[in-house]
Amino acid sequence: MTPPLIALEEHFFSSAVPENLKPKYSEQLKHVDGVYDKACDLGALRLRDMDAGRVALQVISHVPGLSDNPVACHAANDQLAGVINAKNQSKGRFAGFAVAPMGHPDQAAAELRRAITELGFVGALVDNHHNGKFFDGPEYKPFWSAAEELGVPIYLHPTWASQDMAPHYQGNFTQGAAMSMASSGLGWHTETALHVLRLFACGLFDRHPKLKIIIGHMGETIPFMLERIQVLSRRWGDFQRDFKTVYDENIWITTSGVWSLNPLRCILANTQLDHILYSVDYPFQKNEIGLEWIKDLEKSGLVNEDELNAIAYGNAEKLLGVKVPKL
Hints:
By secondary structure, the protein is of the alpha/beta class. It contains 14 helices and eight strands. The protein has helices at residues 26-31, 35-40, 44-52, 70-84, 105-117, 141-150, 175-182, 187-201, 204-207, 222-232, 243-250, 261-270, 287-300, 305-320, and strands spanning 5-12, 55-62, 94-96, 124-127, 154-157, 213-215, 251-254, 276-277. A five-stranded parallel sheet has the order 4-5-6-7-8. It has a three-stranded parallel sheet with strand order 1-2-3. α6 (141-150) links the parallel β4 (124-127) and β5. α4 packs parallel to α5 (105-117) and α5 packs parallel to α6. The model has no long low-confidence stretch (mean pLDDT 93).
């Protein structure tokens, strides 16, 4: 029997979103039917789509693009919390990841603390960089310290190429192709993988050994390069734990938006099973497609029933402290 599903990379557009953010989503708005209306909805439309894909619980987060706007982050978190914490919240089917203004590290740390301790969120989903700047510098110590102290995961989500990154994806082809390569076509994933390597190389996981990091899209290419990274990262410095140990203990990956069993075959061979989490990437991906993928996995023989249930919902329950609601 197909298990109930918890999905972790599921987005919304806040009413606090600045108008200048919307053009960044021009390709998605052009190619994904009804995506804007679905992203703005935190009620009946979202629940209908969840039911269609057997998603029992959505961990909702804001779309990328607010890293330089503390006011909008605060407002977006308040809006989401108002829905999650409402007395008539639809049988506990929503949980929240905070959005944090990562371009302002001290304010990001403060907003993370507020979202967890006052709003009841279960972690944060943050832009992977701020205008090309990753989060391995000393100015981010308060943020990473807060995440470890609070015991909540930080989901590093891909974001748009900065001005200095964009030329790497431009060439003898259409602007649409360049935008896609720089984002969900490839660049988002390799830039997020690079960020994880930078965090390891700077010694972050030695200083914060209990830190929990989530990355999406079948591990943002890391599982497929894992053995090579493990060998070469020995040259990067002296660390208390090697990269594979950090990967096993501090990194969780989700399946978001990658609907093939082929990547999972690799992941099952080199990744701790209890660190693999189902996700969809709603509304940019359809819950129904994710459900078909789960059914294919169920029939494939790659996992047994207990392992399927763990990927579908059990690992998320354990990591986030949530429970699948009874529908």
